[in-house]
Amino acid sequence: MTFVVNNRVFVNPGHEEAFEARFRVRAGEIDKQPGFLAMRVLRPLGNQAPYVVETEWESQAAFHAWVGGDDFKRAHADPMPREAVGEGGGLEQFEVVISSGA
């Protein structure tokens, strides 16, 4: 069963480009992880809405293996400055029950 993790991040005004750049710089690195299927960085269009970083995995075990690995540590070694992100957000984990698409 496919496993999806959403990380909701409230990025403060003026820090949006730096936040997005962090993902552009590492584009393709997560693709090398066993069990990884897809990643999307979703930019909010509404006022006060968070960014959503969505990753899709073959299983919850594959996600946890990535979180425990060196690539995850490298990706999160240099966090955004404290003033760049607001309160709230966080991780949400889901099992896909129904999926459709082209």
From TrEMBL:
TM spans (from-to): none
Organism superkingdom: Bacteria
Domain ABM: 3-94
Keywords, ordered alphabetically: Monooxygenase, Oxidoreductase
GO molecular function, one term: monooxygenase activity
InterPro entries with a match to the protein in the record: ABM_dom, Dimeric_a/b-barrel, Heme-degrading_MO
This protein's name: Antibiotic biosynthesis monooxygenase
